[in-house]
Design a protein that fits this description.
globular, 2 domains, alpha+beta, disordered N terminus
């Protein structure tokens, strides 16, 4: 109860993860006086009143007691553009995979295979890539981490991208591919 009261007095910051009963999970990308601009995974960008009873905070980020100043807003907008610039684009699945299915066949013949639409799997891969990008930006803009700590965490993210290069075959355009250390030096 005490924690909820404190959260009601604070303004959530950009990057806070939220849930809405109608729109599902999302991330706050801008803060207005009485509303949050939220990017929802399945419904795009929506303006949500801060007092909306269908709105729930999952993870609060950068919570403050006041609305941002003009210079903070400008900084946030630039950060949001870098963070979310590619999020709203449609990442095309390779034409040869459209409408296809992915079949996972167990080695044990007595077990049933798992089949799922490749579009569903591809959507999850794209969401993973986008979340890694947000994580990367959060690390880069973190106020407490030292430059050395940021570089060390960035190296882990680069290795994660490298581990995901197998899935590049699903993407139609090379610009959307995962690249690891070798690709980042090109």
């Amino acid at each position: 109860m005490f924690e909820k009261k404190i959260m009601e007095e604070l303004t959530l910051g950009v990057g806070s993860r939220v849930q809405h009963a109608h729109f599902g999970p999302g991330v706050i990308v801008a803060v207005k006086y009485a509303q949050y601009r939220v990017t929802f995974m399945d419904h795009g960008i929506k303006m949500i009143d801060k007092t909306d009873p269908l709105f729930e905070v999952l993870v609060a980020e950068n919570a403050t007691a006041e609305v941002e100043t003009a210079s903070d807003v400008e900084t946030s907008i630039l950060k949001i553009l870098r963070l979310w610039g590619g999020i709203t684009e449609v990442v095309p699945l390779g034409d040869r995979w459209k409408g296809g299915n992915m079949i996972l066949q167990p080695g044990d013949a007595s077990l049933k295979a798992k089949e799922l639409p490749i579009d569903t799997f591809f959507h999850k891969i794209v969401m993973l890539r986008d979340r890694l990008r947000v994580l990367e930006q959060n690390i880069n803009s973190h106020k407490v981490l030292t430059d050395e700590e940021k570089v060390n965490l960035q190296q882990y993210i680069t290795r994660i991208y490298g581990s995901l290069t197998t899935f590049n075959v699903l993407f139609r355009d090379k610009e959307h591919w995962f690249t690891g250390e070798k690709g980042s030096n090109d």
